[in-house]
Amino acid sequence: MSGASSSALHRFAVLTACAVLVLIGAGGLVTSHGAGLAVPDWPNTYGYNMFFFPVSAWIGGIFYEHTHRLLGALVGLLTLVLAVWMHGAPARPWLMRGGWVALVLGATVLLLAPARWQDAVVLGGSGLAALIASRFWPRCAPQPTRLRRLGLLALVLVVVQGVLGGLRVVWLKDELGIVHATTAQLFLILMAALALFTSRAWQRFQSGPLAQRLRPLRPWYTWTSALILVQLILGATMRHEHAGLAVPDFPLAYGRLWPATDPESVARYNRQRVETRAYNDITATHIRVHMAHRLMALVVTGAIAAAWWQTRRRLEPGHVLRRVTAFWLLLVCVQFGLGAWTVWSNKAADVATLHVVVGALTFVTGALLAIAAHAPNVRQSAPLPRAVPAAMATAS
Amino acid sequence: MGYMKAKHLGVVVAVATGMALSAVAGEIRGKITLKGTPPANPVVKDLSADPNCSKLVKEAVHVPMYRVGADGGLADVFVTLAGITGKSTGASAPPAVLDQKGCQYVPYVLAIQTKQTLLVKNSDPLLHNVHATPTAPGNKERNEAQLAGGPDLKFSFDAPEKFLRFKCDVHPWMFAYVCVEDHPWFALSSEDGTYVIKDVPPGKYTLEASHRKLGTLKKEIEVTDGVVNVDFVFEVK
What we know:
The complex is a heterodimer. By secondary structure, chain A is mainly alpha-helical. The C terminus of chain A is likely disordered. Chain A has 15 helices and no strands. The relative contact order of chain A is 0.12. Chain A starts with a helix and ends with a helix. Chain A folds into 2 domains: 150 residues; 162 residues. The longest helix of chain A has 31 residues. In chain B, the strands form 4 sheets. Chain B has a 5-stranded mixed beta sheet, with no helix packed on it. In chain B, strands 1, 13, 16 and 17 form a 4-stranded mixed beta sheet that branches. Chain B is built from 2 helices and 17 strands. In chain B, a hairpin with a 7-residue loop joins strand 10 and strand 11. Chain B is globular, with a radius of gyration of 21 Å. Chain B has one domain: Immunoglobulin-like. The chains are: A mainly alpha, B mainly beta.
């Protein structure tokens, strides 16, 4: 693979990972505005193919839900391009065949169900785009097998994630929303890892001495990242209960260190709530999950501080990973503040969404550090990129 | 000929039974009052999230959590005979109506029987989604689009449930509550806090009065063939 092509692939992977982060933010806006079910149908939008839904109707909760769906489609497209790109020049014939298949499908839909012309246009347009892309497709060599598999895994995951989001809408299951939110975080990690693995810095890192020196830090980065994931799941559970703030004050909780959760107290909390939105009544479980999220925030902050300290001890001053872990610690402190602000602002949508985004950034930072600490000794095991057959390279 | 006689006899017996039952049926009347000052009803601030709504509604919109009359009469209290099941006449009752007007549900609280048809109308020149969110087992959650000028949506529920919420996710400030009862002996208190439950068979009952925010009060009562007066007083705590 040429240097230029390799760095273009890396930049594209970074772009895709950033798009996933934006998508997570858009998802945060959807739940913060209570708009997850503002579009009752899926995969259509109020009966339209989603790409044809008139902009004039993007109002109220529809705006957040519909733009989230469109961004999801964009991320799906970027992931598809990335996965195919990783297969290099050999993917070109497949792209061409896929293009023709989509074109034929579009024509078939138009013939058999003319009323569904919007779907036909989308299919035909995708096919045409694939055919045009195959003309200009990079002639680079495929990425190593592991990377290609990760690219395909990302493709599967983005499809699963889209279907999960859709099923949450049509099945009306809050639990699916929690799975959807958690899968989004895991997908972000995968895309960030792909961006890392396609970088030149990663190749230098793997073949240098640092990978070996990071081994003692493996448990610190790995377990801390696992704790962050648990914290993100707790956060997702709170958001998808659609009950607003289960505990409205901070740092105390209903004026105490630990709030009462007996039925009389919970009934009193519900009576005292001022309702301007259709929130569910809070329950004792909601309060316990909220309090667990607060406790976990302390645990995670402590774990990141410990990981930062361990990194300082093991790496010399000025080392890039010392700066990365310092950034990690800063992120979690900001995140802690945003959590408090979310309560003080009575869960203002923009603050709560920022809390989701910074949470995702905190997780991705930890996960990439853990991946770096687990980097294999590539001097012995890394396969060389497969050479492109000469005939294929000159085919077009 | 014999068949016709038997049919006529059946009708006569049914009418006589009905008259006898209504003759011995009682009535429960009363007034619900609120003691203390409730929190002010919150103002909806994000109406402009849909410019069509802010064009349609010029005055401030309040969420009517507490509707209290000048003399303390409390509206939207669901008064019902507790513990009676399987007596619903909802299947043959006329439909109840929940309207969407001025980007709000009207009325805010409604009461129907199980299996009674609830028609949800859209009188607004804009789209809403109608999202019923029951919690009682046996009642199904539904979420449907309703375009401007679209046909009425029909809902009905199989299980009794107090304050079953309807909401619009396009306009998150829009929500209303429907109380579903498994018999016809219930009422909602009116603007002045009064209520009437008619045609109650004589007997001893537990009468429950439930307000969405203030909870439930209960009284043991005995209904005869006359009028029973039962008042409830809720307190703001």
